[in-house]
Fold:
Amino acid sequence: MNRSEGDLEIHLEIDNETVTEARSVGTMYRGFENLLRGRSTLDGLVITPRICGICSTAHLKAAVKALDMIAGVRVPDDALRVRNLTLMAEQLQNDLRHTFLLFTPDFASPAYQGHSLFEEAVRRYRPLKGETVVPTIRETKKILEIIAILGGQWPHSSFMVPGGVVSVPGQNDINQCRSLLANFRHWYERRVLGCTLARWSDVKTLEDLDLWLHEKREHQESELGFFIRFSREAQLHKLGNGHQNFISFGAYEMPMNTGLKTPSGGLYLFPPGFFNNGVMSPFDQEKITEDVTFSHFKSHGPFQIRARHPFEETTVIETPHVNNEAYSWGKAPRYDGYPAETGPLAELLMASNPLMEGFLNKDGPNVFLRQLARLIRPALLLPAMDCWLKETGVGNEIFYRKNEQRENGRGFGLVQAHRGALGHWVTLEEGKISEYQVITPTTWNASPRDGKNIRGPWEEALVGTLINNPAHPVEIEHTIRSFDPCMVCCVHAVDGHNKRPAAKFFC
Structure:
């Protein structure tokens, strides 16, 4: 997020053990965008995947989609499948590692010692040793082999190029990927869901979920079942309500020739859109702006406009820091003037998932719902991956369409990364990159205030939080981790008066 990614601090004001104010403070300037200026057209395909070691495939796809647009090339169906499959594999890894290695270990915090499920939480989620933690590391490592097989390496692969992909999988490669996927699906059904994907697909309402939970012991004892039971006891649905705005760029373009059908029949497996206080509207990237009112960056242009579309924006450090209001190296992205939460919950809401809609209507956005969306999203990805693996390489389909990369032009690449909406905006002049803007999912969620003094999603979600035990403020940790920030794994609390650690959180 800190142009792009990096360190982050959350500054809180607390009165009577209740958060009264919050600031999301990006403390590091990494300068990826400025690093790209003046470089050759294809350098973004190599450099931007290094922004994040977890999301490297997502950044590669966003970068190449921008160049596809500039070249005016239609990507062949099989190339779309390979691009989608690799991003899906990366997403499966992230959803489950984040849940069981980073989020649920906080269930083993001393803050929950009085809860009836505490001892079981320790047994399951003790960091690096828990009965769920170890298999999660093993199984999610295996699923990433799909990226290495289809893309040649992981992480930081560069197999996507304008017009398609340069790696052409053979039948042995496809068979190997299908075997890896089948094994992962078996583990996910047995360990995470406690039932088949077919049985889970029948769960569409809150009533269906309760019936499923009490139907079999396997359902209750599954990771999903335990998460639901613990979350209810800990009342996680009362934490992290925040803004009622959600954004998704659309996930996984549908090949023109595929047997996979989507509920909406649209161009994406999960359609794009903007959700504002219960009202869904079509997505229009022209409505995206970046606000620098509270950022350590200069306004520019003849009127010193502090909120611009990414194509009109540049990243210029304000030195010396003459803006006394600035408190973050992150900019404040807005959609049609609104702050917007992004992530799996936003994705499933745009896809009109009835379970997500039911919970949202009941409790609003919250910690439990965000994490539930992350736990069940794999159930929607796995059948799609199976279908596209079966279709890849069938017939005379090609994996690359020759194109002439233009020396001048501009294009944008929008994808749904694991954490939500990721966008790259690229401008070329005389065969060189003249401007590059990246808005990551964490930039959306962890944004500072904007020119209207409206808080970013994290900030809003934290205000009003009651801290039951100041020595173990897990409520703060739950709220931030529910957004799956890139810097999630090394979080601690510091007393603002003496600068000493106030509490440690599991990493």
